[in-house]
Design a protein that fits this description.
single chain; alpha+beta; Ubiquitin-like (UB roll); Helix Hairpins; 41% helix; elongated; disordered N terminus
Length: 246
Amino acid sequence: MKKTAGDSKRIINKSNLSESRKTHKTGNLIPAIIQDNDSKEVLMLAYMNRESFIRSLETGYTWFYSRERDCLWNKGETSGNFQKIIKIFTDCDNDALVFLVEQKGAACHTGNKSCFFNEVQSGGTGDFKSLSDKLNYGNYLGIYDICGEDRDNSLLFLDDLFGIVSKRIKEKSEKSYTYKLHMRGMEEILKKVGEESIEVILASAVQDKKQLIYEIADLLYHLTVLIFEKKISYKDIMDELKSRHK
């Protein structure tokens, strides 16, 4: 007998759902698709971290994490357009969520019921290229694993490393080397970058591969701290590299 989508549906208890779901590779966030429970219209897409997800479960209303403001926000807190949660679904990999909600008022800040009201129309490939240039892809590294191709995606960890450095500094833990380095200031950071650069040169000179890998890792870490402090991103660097090959 052929299986339908309903045949493979499984129920995850709310008590362990926050433990079973994965986090997004860039910044420990997970995308949450919000859908009207009655019409099934897609209303919006937002992001959650663990805390906002748990608050959503506890309160029965949607809470999200703002990447721009770096804080939690309750949908409807300002506008009054709250979203009462009816059902929650995870995808097959536990790295995306769908919320069926009872929407009060408009879901979009523009006053539209749904945030998805701009229909994509194209008369040719050129139009799609123009649209792709306007889309907001976020502040990501720019190195991707292409599905179906045998590629090493280990460079994606540089994006994770940037997020870890940012998190350590914002947590202000006195036990964190990253935070201590941040507090010592730019002069100390530049000193460490210089020292690690010399260590890379020395390891290269003696042709010790294992030591060279170790020293390059140290240099990349300290460069990541410098990149964060200077308010640039690995995406900026990758874009510069790509521009040299046009």
